[in-house]
Every structure is written in C-alpha cells, then in structure tokens.
Amino acid sequence: MDRPRPTTLWHHGLMRPIVIAANWKMHTTPMEAGELAATIARRTRVPGVTRVICPPFVCLAAVRDAVAGEDVAVGAQNVHHELAGAYTGEVSAPMLVGLASWVIVGHSERRRDFGETDVLIGRKLRRAVEHGLRPILCIGEQLAEREAGRAVEVVAGQLRGALAEHDPAELDRAGLVVAYEPVWAIGTGRNARGVDAAEMAEAIRSVAAELGWPEAGASLPVLYGGSVTSANIDEFLTEPAIDGALVGGASLKPDEMAGIVARAGLRVEAATGTLGS
C-alpha cells in the first residue's frame, strides 16, 4: 500500500512533519466509518498538514476505500507483537499491510486496561517497522506522577524502555512519531498547558539524543494528545516544539476536525512564510 508522503516544513533548521492524527477508539461501524472518513477528508484539505485516520480494525477497509484518492493516511490503533499464532482476537502487522500505513502503539488505554509494558510496546514497535507501518508511539504520565514532580522521569523511562532494542537511525527512517499524552488529560476535558507540553517534547528529544537519534534528536516529531479540540489546539500549535496532535473524541466530529486541521494549516503558513500570499 502506498503511503501518503509526509508533508514537512523547516523547523529549527530541520524537517519535521505537521501531523493531525484521529484516534476513533471503539466508535463507528464500517458504514459509519466510511461516511465519516469521506466527510473529514473532504473538509480538511489543507496544504502542508499530514492527516491520519485511525478507526477500529473492522473499519480499516471501509476507511481506506473512502479516502482513496485523498492525501489521507489510514492507521490502525494497535498491533500484536507476534507475526502469527494462537492469539484469539489479535491482529498482526502482516494482516495490516494493505489496510493501513500507520499504527498507534503504547496508547495509555492499552497500558492501563491490558497491562502493556514498555518492553511489550517495544516489540510491537519492532513489528510495525519491519512491515512498513509508520508508528505513533504514545507516552505520558499519571496525574499523581506529575504532582510528585516525576513527569519527565516517567515519560523518559517509557521512551527508553520502548526504544531500548531499536536502532535510532532505523526508527528515524521509518518515520517514528511520538505522541505525548498526559494520562490525566485523556477524555477528561482537562488538557495540559501548551508550555508544559512543549517542555516535555524537548525532554523527549533530549532522551532521543542520548539514545543516538540522528540530528541530536531534534528531527523526532512530537505530537500532543489529551482532550484536544478546535478551541484549544492553538495553545499547542503555537509552540515550535509541538508538531501536531493525536485527537480523540473531537476527531469523530467533522466540524472539530476541520477546525483543528485549519489551525494546523495556519501553523504551516506561518512557518513557511506563505501567510497572505
């Protein structure tokens, strides 16, 4: 399956994509998903913004077909760490090839509800990369951890754990994207401050540099995720360290997605000097 080429812009002397990824979680039937994806694709045609839609597994084909001809990527919400076997109800990376070109790994709901560890998430990341799936690696702290002043320590530990067995140059070539999603902000209506998210993004890149990431880690795209809406997206997009968003509930609403992607487009215009041209 051909991947839409990520659109990039010059950021601090480096090229990083601006990405708006929709995580529909356990919502929509295949028919609903196809209709919603087509509407969102049509209403978010904004130059310079990489759009990704991640529907439930059973809706992948419907979404793929609905956005055919549009510059919209399709992503899966999860992937198993083995290629095949007696894993009832699971989906492997080879099964996703042709249906999706991106995949989310390590979402906080998978960590919380299914006990996924950093080591397991690292194995999923390996399978994704081996099969040409562009990964969005999710990391983030609990509220108690932030209040205890351990947010950076926790997030850095998650990143090191997931990337421990990987070649940074290989992940860079695979287009790894990290989504910083403070767990206390997911589905709560409470979002982090833009400045806090930006500080965490720089901390993430600092860890990537320690691990040997190319360009001292500065080329690693970092998204914010956690109760993102069209009303608060500017707080994050105005931070040069933040390269877009992983959007949950708002991504099921075409008006919200149109607004979020439009604001991302303004970020691209500002960065490339095309405002008012």
Short description:
The protein is α/β, with parallel strands linked by helices and 277 residues long.
Description:
With 277 residues, this protein is of the alpha/beta class. The chain has one domain (8-272): Aldolase class I (TIM Barrel, Alpha-Beta Barrel). It is 40% helix and 16% strand. The protein has eleven helices and ten strands. The strands form two sheets. An eight-stranded parallel barrel has the order 3-4-5-6-7-8-9-10, surrounded by five helices. A two-stranded antiparallel ribbon has the order 1-2. Helix 1 (30-43) packs parallel to helix 2 (60-66), helix 1 (30-43) packs parallel to helix 11 and helix 5 crosses helix 7. The longest helix is centred in the last third of the chain and has 19 residues, at 254-272. The chain is globular.
Summary tags:
two-stranded antiparallel ribbon, alpha/beta, 40% helix, single chain, TIM Barrel, 10 strands, 277 residues
Assign an overall shape.
Answer: globular
Provide the structure class. alpha/beta
First-to-last CA distance: 35 Å
Supply the CATH architecture. Answer: Alpha-Beta Barrel
Tell me roughly what share of residues is in helical segments.
40-55%
How many domains? The number is 1
Global Rg? 17 Å
The whole-number mean of residue pLDDT values reads 92
Low-confidence stretches: 1-14
Question: Could you please say which CATH topology applies here?
Answer: TIM Barrel
Largest sheet: 8 strands, parallel, barrel
